[in-house]
Every structure is written in structure tokens, then in C-alpha cells.
Amino acid sequence: MGLSGSARGGQRMNGMESNRRSVQSSAVTEWNDGVVCAQSDSLVGEEPLMIQVADQALTVTMRTPGDDFELAAGFLFTEGIVKSPQEIVSLGWADDSEAEHNAVRVELQAEAQSRSQNTKRNFVSTSSCGLCGKSSLESVYTAGIARPNADLRIDPQILCGFPETLRTAQTLFGKTGGLHAAALFDSSGKLLALKEDVGRHNAVDKLVGWALMQGLVPLSNFALLASGRGGFEIIQKSLAAGIPLLASVSAASSLAVQMARDFGQTLVGFLRGRRFVVYSGEERLGLSLPKDRAIVFQAR
Question: Is the model's pTM score more than 0.90?
């Protein structure tokens, strides 16, 4: 995939602009044990981003400014519109968004262009919803998702270190306390990349988009840690990127667990301190339940 000169320049401007727009200051009134005072607080930025394919608007999502080209690339990939980075001809700012950088224009190869036109999905979404606008239940699963690498193994002791590494690396969260994050780890526990956003699914798309542009997809030998709950949209996006193990610091939903089991992905929830639960794929963590501790369900 090649970016035009203007797109590369826009990416540099994007970095400078996002530093200003991703965190903003606001006057607040604080009540602290009966004492009232004026304070200045840091707020996480939230602005709309339109993704255009050629001259057609494909989606509008609420996001935290920054890594917008990665967000666009990751979104197109995890939604099955592009199958490889080579199908993205160029990424740049739409002509009417140069001042605010709130619209990304993507040029695709013909086959990917056709997929974008034939999609059954209405992609208008909020920062909290990665599935808003699905036209039917049958269109929930993205086509072409394959089972991830079955040979990945991660020591549970290493897995328990993921959340602290993520928190230490979350610079924007440290300033605002209001951001989600997605972090990519190898089997030794090394942090490869971390992306932050006001939306969980946007953080994952930014991370997958980064990996796609680095030529690392499929991410067959890596694990993903997501802040917040392990919802279906996060499972689907991680599977689209070929990630064998997904962990979150909160609970998983029923549809997320079903999809992880259907595709053979390891799904971990409540990863906090020295405890976690595994919904599927225990073998990648080397776990086996002793027979005397197994729960046996009997039909009534």
C-alpha cells in the first residue's frame, strides 16, 4: 500500500493536530468532602470521523482524534471490505476536511471497491457500538473469517502481566481517565503496540490498521488485550485479524463466547491481578481442570 505525498503530509499534520484534540481542558466545579472549588480537568476528545471510499461516504464513527488512517484501514479490513493492504491504493484527507481532519478518503482496488458498494451494512455508529446498523442477524458474522492459529501457547503467569503493562503505556488514559485501549502482545509478554480511543472497537481497528500497514496481518502469533468488556464486535474484529487469544479486563457477552467457541479462539475475561476466567480455548494457556473440580451438568 502506498500513500501519496499529500497523505503522508496529512499524516504528519494528523499527529500534531491529534495531540491538541485528543485531550482538551475544561473548567469544572469540584465537591470534595464538603469543600467546593474551581478546577481545570482534562477531557478525552471525541469527534466524528467520516470514512469515504472514493466520493461515497461509507461510515461515520465517533472517535478520539489520532491514528485516523490506521482506524480507516483497520475498519475496512475487519469489516471484510479489504482482504489485504495491497487493495488499499491510497489514504488521505477528504478535500473538505483539511482544516479539521474529520474525513478520510480511501481509494481501493476494483474488487474491494465492489465489496464496499455491495455491503448490506449501514455503518453509522457511535463510539460505544461497533454493530449499530446491521441489517439482519444473518449479516452479523463477517464473511471470510478463518480459525486462528491453534499452536500459540502463552504462560498464565505472563498473561497476568498484560494489564499492568497496558496501564503503564496508556498515556492518554493517565491524563483523562476516559479512554479504552487495545494492546498487542507476543507470547513472551512483550508489548508490540497500543492504541487508545473513546470507543472499544475503534481502539481495536486502530491497532489492526497499524498491523495491516506494517505487513503483520494475520496476527497469528499474538494476543490482544482489550479494556472494557469482551463484546461480540471485539471478538469479530480480532478474529478477522487472525488473533488466537483475546483477553479483556471485564466480562464477555453470550454472543462473544459463542463466536469464540465456534471459531476456536481463546477468550479470557476478568483478567485482573492474579485471576482470570477462560470462556474458550483453555489449551493455549495449558489449562486442564482436575476431575475432582469439574462441574457436571445433569439434565433435569
Answer: no
